């Protein structure tokens, strides 16, 4: 067995002294300052000037020198665009975009009624222009004309757009002869303007309902040619059979014509009683009649989407004003 001799521990090399860069820089600054002061003294002697008195500390003298000798960098000022004061547009100015405007459109902007209803009001002789009764359809107004309805001068109002999550047992109407609850009771504190619902929801149907005093937008969204998409969640008394699902998807023929749907789906595949339906036709009780045609009973019907508007953060029986982006979306949709 060989004997291993232990290795001799080598002495650790002594670390080289680190050069202190800060001290070197400080020394260089000091030498430059000395050379600079010597140069100034020689220049003053050559000119025959006396030695100036030292006032203040070195820091203060150094600061004063740089303030006098060193010119600050000029920063380029950016030209600011001229600011224009925003002035609110009056409703009558926004209405008269041309020289004249139709009387029924004026009444709709004043919140009297939608355009179709306004034509009936004009025909009944309830509207006067400059003190004279006007019954002519298509009569056009100028900005100087004075319009009265039932003896009161009417002026255009600012448009209001309210989205309501309608609960059960409320009538989609401005008023009710039998004193039943209407959707107007739910938005009583929303505005002082006279608004009316766009489209209808049955008394037992819940979900999104738009109310506004913008007659043009209400008429456009209600017109079938605009094909406003509406999405409903339907709960049936029993599961929807696959063959009936396909019949609805392909389109049924009802007593008042075809009933095409844009899309139909099961939101929860484990529960065939709940069905989602998207369609753009707006005939009376159309969703209920589609399922009743196949022998199903609709136990719950809820509108979840209307013209791109959703129920997000809007509990049942609550309302909210539309944002400017949502209003623009609706107007673009109405233009088609």
Question: Can I get a quick summary?
Answer:
The protein has helices at 21-47, 58-69, 91-95, 103-109, 115-123, 183-186, 215-222, 242-250, 286-293, 324-335; strands at 101-102, 127-129, 132-133, 140-141, 147-149, 152-153, 161-166, 196-198, 206-212, 230-236, 252-254, 257-259, 263-265, 274-279, 298-306, 309-310, 319-321. It has 336 residues and is an alpha+beta fold.
User: What do we call the CATH homologous superfamily of the domain at 158-226 and 312-336?
Assistant: Pseudouridine synthase I, catalytic domain, N-terminal subdomain
The share of residues in extended strands comes to: 15-25%
Radius of gyration: 41 Å
Are there runs of 5+ residues with pLDDT below 50, and where?
84-89
Strand/helix succession:
HHHEHHEEEEEEHEEHEHEEEEHEEEH
State the end-to-end CA separation: 102 Å
- Summarize the biggest pleated sheet: 9 strands, mixed
CATH class identity of the domain at 158-226 and 312-336 = Alpha Beta
Number of beta strands: 17
- Estimated structural class: alpha+beta
Q: CATH topology of the domain at 158-226 and 312-336, which one?
A: Alpha-Beta Plaits
Sum up the overall morphology in one term. elongated
């Amino acid at each position: 067995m060989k004997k291993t001799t232990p290795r001799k521990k080598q002495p650790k090399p002594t670390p080289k002294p680190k050069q202190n860069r800060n001290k070197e820089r400080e020394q260089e600054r000091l030498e430059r300052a000395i050379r600079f002061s010597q140069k100034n003294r020689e220049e003053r002697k050559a000119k025959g000037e006396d030695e100036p008195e030292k006032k203040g500390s070195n820091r203060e003298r150094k600061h004063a020198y740089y303030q006098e000798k060193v010119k600050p960098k000029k920063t380029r000022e950016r030209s600011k665009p001229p600011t224009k004061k925003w002035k609110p547009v009056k409703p009558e100015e926004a209405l008269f975009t041309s020289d004249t405007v139709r009387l029924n459109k004026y009444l709709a902007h004043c919140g009297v009624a939608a355009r179709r209803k306004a034509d009936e009001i004009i025909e009944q002789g309830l509207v006067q222009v400059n003190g004279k009764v006007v019954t002519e359809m298509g009569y056009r107004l100028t900005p100087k004309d004075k319009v009265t309805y039932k003896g009161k001068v009417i002026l255009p109002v600012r448009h209001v757009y309210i989205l309501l999550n309608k609960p059960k047992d409320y009538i989609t109407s401005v008023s009710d002869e039998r004193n039943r609850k209407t959707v107007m009771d739910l938005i009583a504190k929303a505005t002082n303007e006279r608004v009316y619902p766009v489209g209808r929801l049955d008394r037992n149907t819940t979900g999104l309902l738009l109310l506004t005093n913008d007659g043009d937008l209400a008429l456009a969204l209600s017109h079938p040619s605009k094909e406003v998409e509406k999405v409903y969640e339907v709960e049936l008394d029993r599961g929807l059979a696959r063959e009936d699902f396909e019949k609805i998807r392909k389109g049924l023929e009802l007593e008042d014509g075809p009933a095409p749907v844009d899309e139909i789906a099961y939101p929860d595949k484990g529960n065939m009683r709940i069905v989602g339906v998207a369609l753009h036709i707006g005939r009376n009780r159309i969703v209920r009649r589609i399922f009743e045609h196949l022998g199903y009973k609709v136990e719950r019907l809820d509108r979840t989407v209307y013209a791109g508007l959703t129920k997000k953060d809007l509990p049942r029986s609550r309302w909210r004003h539309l944002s400017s982006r949502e209003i623009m979306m609706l107007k673009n949709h109405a233009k088609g």
